[in-house]
Amino acid sequence: QVPSPGAHARRARARHPSRCWRDAMYRSRRPRGRLTSACAVLLPAVCGHLRAHCGVGVPLAAGPPSAAAVLRPGLAAGRQCCSSALRRGARPRGSGGEGPWASERHIAAEFGERWPGLLAALKRPKRYAAWVNPFTHFGDDGSLVDLLADCGFQRPTGTAGAAHLWVPQSGAGDGGVAYVERPRPHLQPLPKPPTCPSSGLKAYYPLDFASALPVLALLACLPPGARIFDACSAPGGKCLLLAGMLLARMSTRGRARDSAPGGERLTAMEWDKFRLSRLRQNLQLYLPEHVLTRVHALGGDASRPPMELRREFPFDGILVDAPCTSERERLLRDTARRSKAAGAETAAEAMPGGGGSSGADEDPPFVWDRRRSEDCAKRQVALLRSAMDMCAPHGSVVYSTCALSDIENDAVVEEALKGAPHRWHVHRGNIFSSQEGWSFDARALAAEADLTIEETRYGSRVLPDRGGWGPMYWSVLRGPAA
User: Fold this and answer.
1) Which of 213, 219, 289, 437 is the most exposed place for a label (fewest CB within 10 A)?
2) Closest CA to 317 of 260, 242, 258
3) Cα→Cα distances 242→212, 224, 246, Å
């Protein structure tokens, strides 16, 4: 018996599941029934691939007459199937390679018995501090102070307070509510920042307090009149903190220095065009015009400095807040998507012919891909080595990430130091002192913001299972003449 052409096509798709995507895209070019044709090809192929390689059975709707009939049962079954496969660590049978769900064992082994508590803390809502804009006169009557105090915030008396940072009161989370009691992570801990009526600038910028620690460490290493470079600047929170400390004094000393060749200067760079536009927008929203003359936001790759950046060489201090896997950010985004999907499905169930619940309200699985982390580490090493080349001999480079694994933290610093052109070294110790009288005392900062700073081989880190802040890693590298 000669098999039909349709049987040949089905066998080919079974042998090569990826072909179904190309077939679906071809069929979806028809002017009518795009969604129906795409789903009719994709869903059976994907579910069949999962059944064959992961041992997961997926019920399929037979003969869907419309796109809605295909989407409702198919997507619900697909979500349940993928979630169950990821939760029990399934991977393709007979494959020696490891998938992203199997790679989680590596990071779990890295933290040992601490991992279950750390994973639970990663899924909780983030804590936020507030950088209060020193360039505005908003709240001179005490209204801004009252607003922050009503939200459960206070200004520390030490280094963090001098950097215009406000933190939640000890024992309270965001907005005066206990941290573990905040039910929805997508809610902002503070109201929308008000605008100063006289200057037109925003009053404060919410940020994770742990993300401010690398900036405070860099500020302690800078000489007077320093030239600073923020290598991966978007969305701009760390850049605003640098500008607030270095350039806010221009408002008190007058604007006669604005056109002077010397003095502090801040250069920020971002390679992604969308993030660069967001960076420039935040600078416009928070910095006055006479300060923007000393802040240059450039587009480009800091690992391969363009000519426009080479004209600014050398820098006294460089911050490399490198792109990383950002496990907590991805987890919280997945949680927000699932909450939104649960609301949409609830509305769909109320419609005639609605399907059952898909389990969208369950916690999202933690998926950590070792290969992705290693790819990020390669780019991070290139960024850090480029920063060392751009830095003055007496200068300092602070490297930071919000990644969990040592692959993107200490291992990157170790690899960058191997290829350093000069005798660069890691600056160890809790206290830094600069010629401006600035100090960085890790123990004092930990007491001010109710967090724990842990020492690693080449730097320090803050993890969310001890205080709710982070994750954040940073390492301070000094030049041979520093």
Assistant:
1) 437
2) 242
3) 10, 14, 6
